Automatic annotation (TrEMBL):
Domain named RapZ C-terminal: residues: 165-283
Signal sequence, renumbered to the chain: none
Lineage, broadest ranks: Bacteria, Bacillati, Bacillota, Clostridia, Eubacteriales
GO MF annotation: an example: ATP binding
Protein name, UniProt field: UPF0042 nucleotide-binding protein
Keyword terms of this UniProt record: ATP-binding, GTP-binding, Nucleotide-binding
Binding site for GTP: D59, I60, R61, G62
Length: 294
């Protein structure tokens, strides 16, 4: 039986995540009071295999009932029920925008400012976020992208015990560190192509920048040490049951150095037959915000 507890911030995408899980054949229950989790788990066990994939959506809509969540999790652990926690997160800016677009009130601030409700909710969810097996930051994800992530994590291939999905993510520090990153590496020590006129217009996806970044002696030494550490960590993460690993590579704007390095890491992982994907979160942010003209 695969037992997933879906939680996270209001407006972060729990509804879409639940719909994706339903499409994958999960039996989904929304807003179940945490005090009922043990009885529900026992009922599923007694179904004799008729219910094998379950997703429970638990969040602060449960009011005072939410505070009993950890007691229920202790019960599940003591009775050897295996469960996973999926936590949906997003930046304050994005959450405020989503609430305003839908004209919804925040459940923790129905008559006050949305940002106040978000802050209160973050504080209440901090402990459960720390316990989460998987965190997905939906700030810059389209619905299609979120569905793809859910499918990769909880589709049929995730039944394999040693399955690990690795995402290599480039980003710009000035746009914030990805909240769902497991490993974060700073490559701002490499000379910045932004300040070289003939390279500025290119991104790390293109050969002139890629060659410039990768031919540095410092870059080659960094890559050797980094890949040695990553290949050491991956088997140990798998051993501990981790199903998703996000490796974030950051430079100033997320367009040149981090993109080239992230691509090199991704290519190395693929050569080693790891299940890896690549994302460039901020590759066009500087251009879109008018930092320079191409």
């Amino acid at each position: 039986m695969r037992f997933i507890i879906v939680t996270g911030l209001s407006g972060a995408g729990k509804t879409e995540a639940t719909r994706s899980l339903e499409d994958l054949g999960y039996f989904c229950v929304d807003n179940l009071p945490p005090t009922l989790i043990p009885k529900f788990a026992e009922a599923c066990i007694q179904s004799e295999g008729k219910i094998e994939k379950i997703a429970l959506v638990i969040d602060i809509r449960g009011g005072t009932f939410f505070d009993s969540l950890f007691q229920s999790l202790i019960y599940l652990k003591e009775h050897e029920f295996k469960y996973e926690i999926l936590f949906l997160d997003a930046s304050d800016e994005v959450l405020v925008k989503r609430f305003k677009e839908t004209r919804r009130r925040h459940p923790l601030a129905p008559d006050g400012r949305i940002i106040t409700g978000i802050t209160n909710e973050r504080n209440r969810l901090r402990e459960v976020r720390d316990r989460a097996d998987t965190i997905i930051d939906t700030s810059k994800l389209a619905i299609r992208d979120l569905r793809d992530k859910i499918t990769n994590l909880y589709g049929d291939n995730s039944k394999i015990e040693r399955h690990l999905s690795i995402t290599v993510l480039s980003f710009g520090f000035k746009y914030g560190i990805p909240v769902d990153a497991d490993l974060v590496f700073d490559v701002r020590f490499i000379q910045n192509p932004f300040y070289i006129p003939e390279l500025k217009k290119f991104s790390g996806m293109e050969e002139p920048v890629r060659k410039f970044v990768m031919e540095h002696e410092e870059t080659q030494g960094f890559m050797e040490k980094l890949m040695d550490m990553i290949t050491f960590l991956i088997p140990n993460y798998i051993k501990e049951g981790k199903r998703q690993l996000i490796i974030a590579i950051g430079c100033t704007g997320g367009r040149h150095r981090s993109v080239a390095i992230a691509n090199a890491i991704y290519e190395s992982l693929v050569k080693e037959n790891y299940k890896a994907s690549i994302e460039h979160r901020d590759i066009n942010e500087d251009v879109n915000r008018g930092a320079y003209k191409l």
